[in-house]
Amino acid sequence: MDKKNEWVLNFIEAANDKGLPVTINGVEYEAEQKVHKQIIKEKADYMSDYVTDDKGKIIELSFHEIKTNHKK
User: Fold this and answer.
1) Which residue range(s) make up the domain with 43?
2) Does 9 fall in a domain?
3) Which long-range contacts (CB under 8 A, 24 or more apart) does 19-25 make?
4) pTM
5) Number of structural domains in the chain
6) pLDDT in tens for each of the 72 residues of the chain?
7) Quick check: is 19 in a domain?
């Protein structure tokens, strides 16, 4: 795995283990599906979004691939 995105997978798996819903590019993350791990292994940049309830408790995490104009 590209070290650049290792934090994404670790963060997603930790949140998923705690029962938080996680989406990647709008698709719900399921640890059993290898396709999600393959998506994260790509050399893409990701932005995380936190969804909170009215008391500020995080209730969902979303990761979105962001496009950059520079070539890698």
Assistant:
1) 3-66
2) yes
3) 20/58, 20/59, 20/60, 20/61, 21/59, 21/60, 21/61, 22/60, 22/61, 22/62, 22/63, 23/60, 23/61, 23/62, 23/63, 24/62, 24/63, 24/64, 25/63, 25/64, 25/65
4) 0.63
5) 1
6) 456 677 777 888 888 888 899 888 888 877 666 656 666 666 678 888 999 999 999 999 888 888 766 555
7) yes
